[in-house]
């Protein structure tokens, strides 16, 4: 039996997110939505985020533009990516002020943050959620379900599963995936493992340094 922390990145999308929320409500499964800040400037997209928060899901910061990972960007630019999104999220933030960096295809490593971004996250008491299962629904909208099931079967710790509420057709399979996972014994709503939370309310864990680019890395 594997625990699963279900997350959605890169939304909200008015064409997709309400359907995802309907599936989650029907299945009574909580999730965390890591939103792209610029999308919240669209009233329809913000309404999706507001609905998600009202229905008990968490809203997290996934940068303003989802461009180049922050560890490969300048200090001021990377801090603005975080701070401007925080301002747009506003009251939708929960007490943990969740943040997820952009990995550039799901990769982990020191490209995730630069020192300025890391210092900002510490100073503003953010909690950073990484991931350990990215089945690639954003690039394989038909085949991701089988990949996700394989990841759950092979898991040795709680799974932080990253899906995407994007308009590519992948979320048409969400209800089927969740039903099959529940039937196989998956338990949704699990707390992420320590390995996926390198910063908790501004307090670094040992893995936080591994997310930060060296000071002298070319920008």
TrEMBL record:
SUPFAM superfamilies reported in the protein's UniProt record: Glycoside hydrolase/deacetylase
Domain NodB homology: 2-189
InterPro entries to which the protein is assigned, alphabetical: Glyco_hydro/deAcase_b/a-brl, NODB_dom, Polysacc_deacetylase_ArnD
Pfam families for this protein: Polysacc_deac_1
Gene Ontology biological process terms from the UniProt entry: carbohydrate metabolic process
Sample GO molecular function, one term: hydrolase activity, acting on carbon-nitrogen (but not peptide) bonds
Function: Is involved in generating a small heat-stable compound (Nod), an acylated oligomer of N-acetylglucosamine, that stimulates mitosis in various plant protoplasts.
Family statement drawn from the similarity comment of this UniProt entry: Belongs to the polysaccharide deacetylase family.
Protein name per its UniProtKB record: Chitooligosaccharide deacetylase
Taxonomic source organism: Neoroseomonas soli
């Amino acid at each position: 039996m594997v625990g699963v922390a279900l997350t959605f990145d890169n939304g909200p999308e008015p064409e997709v997110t309400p359907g995802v929320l309907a599936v989650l409500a029907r299945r009574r499964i909580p999730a965390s939505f890591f939103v792209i800040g610029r999308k919240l400037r669209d009233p329809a997209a913000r309404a999706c985020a507001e609905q998600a928060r009202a229905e008990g899901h968490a809203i997290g910061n996934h940068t303003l533009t989802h461009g180049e990972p922050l560890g490969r960007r300048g200090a001021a630019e990377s801090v603005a990516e975080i701070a401007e999104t925080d301002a747009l999220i506003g009251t939708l933030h929960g007490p943990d002020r969740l943040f997820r960096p952009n990995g550039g295809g799901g990769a982990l490593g020191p490209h995730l943050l630069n020192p300025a971004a890391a210092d900002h996250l510490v100073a503003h008491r953010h909690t950073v959620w990484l991931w350990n299962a990215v089945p690639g629904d954003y690039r394989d909208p038909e085949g991701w379900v089988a990949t996700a099931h394989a990841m759950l079967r092979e898991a040795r710790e709680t799974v932080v599963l990253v899906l995407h509420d994007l308009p590519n057709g992948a979320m048409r399979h969400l209800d089927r995936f969740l039903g099959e996972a529940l039937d196989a014994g998956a338990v949704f709503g699990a707390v992420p493992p320590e390995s996926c939370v390198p910063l908790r309310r501004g307090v670094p864990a040992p893995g936080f340094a591994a997310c930060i680019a060296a000071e002298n890395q070319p920008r």
